[in-house]
Target: Aldehyde dehydrogenase
Amino acid sequence: MEDDHGMRRSVEELRQTFKSGKTRGVDWRKSQLRAILRLIEENKDNLYQLLQSELGKHPVESYRDEIGIVKKSVDLALSCIDQWMSPKKGWLPLLFLPASRKLLSEPLGVVLIIGSWNFPISLILDPLIGAISAGNTVVLKPSELAPNCSSFLAKLLRVYLDSKAIKVIEGGREVSNQLLQYKWDKIFFTGSVKVGKLVMAAAANHLTPVTLELGGKCPAIFDSLPNADIKVATKRVASGKWGACCGQACIGVDYMLVEQKFATTLIEELKKTIKTFYGDDVRNLKNMSKIINKFHFDRLRNLLEDPAVANCIVYGGSFDEKNLIIEPTILLDPPLDAEIMNEEIFGPLLPIITLDNIKESIEFINSKSKPLALYAFTKNENFKKQILTETSSGSVTFNDTMIQFACDDLPFGGVGQSGFGRYHGKYSFDAFSHEKAVLERSFYFELDPRHPPWNNYKLEFLRLAYNYDYVGLVLLLLGLKKPLSS
Ligand code: NAD
Model:
């Protein structure tokens, strides 16, 4: 961990590097992107091992959510960066011609990226790809809760990437807090709502723009049986609940909503799916990640300790404290005022809430903060339309879970309490760029009506020009149209 003095020196060095203009060139950007690919490729065995030991991630999960995601993002950035950087030309009103205009993407400067622990590699490297593509210098602060992944990044980024432009500063909340005191040109934060508020307050001191990638409770609606294929749906829900870091995912399914009459069938099908995916014995959950640490293990156990909640367990509920494993657990209708229904669960506990009519799910969702992701399993087009128009969320996915994260053409980000700003693909480039409006006029054709002294002719000229009434303008100029009085 660096002391405060080292931090200041690091930030100053990054500012000097940015000022030198080195990071603006496309060659530098591409060389750094290629270096990330090399880093991943040459150290992937080490990475698989780290993710397995730190989070219990199976290599398939590690490839899908971390290594593969990062490689895919670099490949896309390398193939699109020239186009992303190219100025975007456009039209101007006739009134200002002859002139040209363009939108020029410029880097923001020195940026800070703070990550969380659940996807400790991709949630740091994915935003970094955006920051480099856009030509910034960067400080990365990985989460202290995945310390081995954090030190992997600190050691290797220094070796593979330009250390005068990209630095990793390790540490926990104190270091994070110290970093937040500096003036940044952008802060990109992934983490909880609580810390997101602190980040935004610190950023306000310097009027620094922020992207907040936060969390919350993501619901999954299961429509009536004829309207949803239950076998496919339960597999996809199970994947979105237990299949990504054991439910410790910001866009994992937090709870389900279903009509009362279909609840038993849904639960039975979920149980079958869990057994197919993971077998019977909680200690043999080789295909599921573990809980990150004892604190979060106890937090999840406490959620179930409330007797009113414990009574609602219909499947699972066992804990292996030594290995920090919690069995996939299903609860039916826990009290709505219980903590489990009011905090983000971030673990393998799945409450199922029953409703008389599935349309009530909309009111239920709207009674809570706007979620990062909303899932609905339905073939009913009217219901889909109603969900889209009557609810608000970072994203909506019909008939699947989580896969929106891997689609580069879809922006990833929240709304309301689930955060703001977005990234992935071109959106990552935009998140770290300022699109500068550039207008260039020629010295020819100086238009008198723009300048005082004012009269009715000039007013009429401007009225016609602002209404794009070019026929009227020509008539006015030829003296065939009289100006109206003001
Ligand atoms: P967290 O907010 O506790 O920590 C995130 C980062 O902030 C860490 O690097 C940590 O060191 C730092 N931090 C912690 N306390 C701080 C403080 N007081 N001041 C300054 N910095 C501080 O979150 P977490 O436990 O790492 O992650 C879980 C949360 O993140 C969940 O709410 C989850 O939904 C959310 N999340 C969101 C996304 C997304 O893309 N939207 C992705 C992953 C996780």
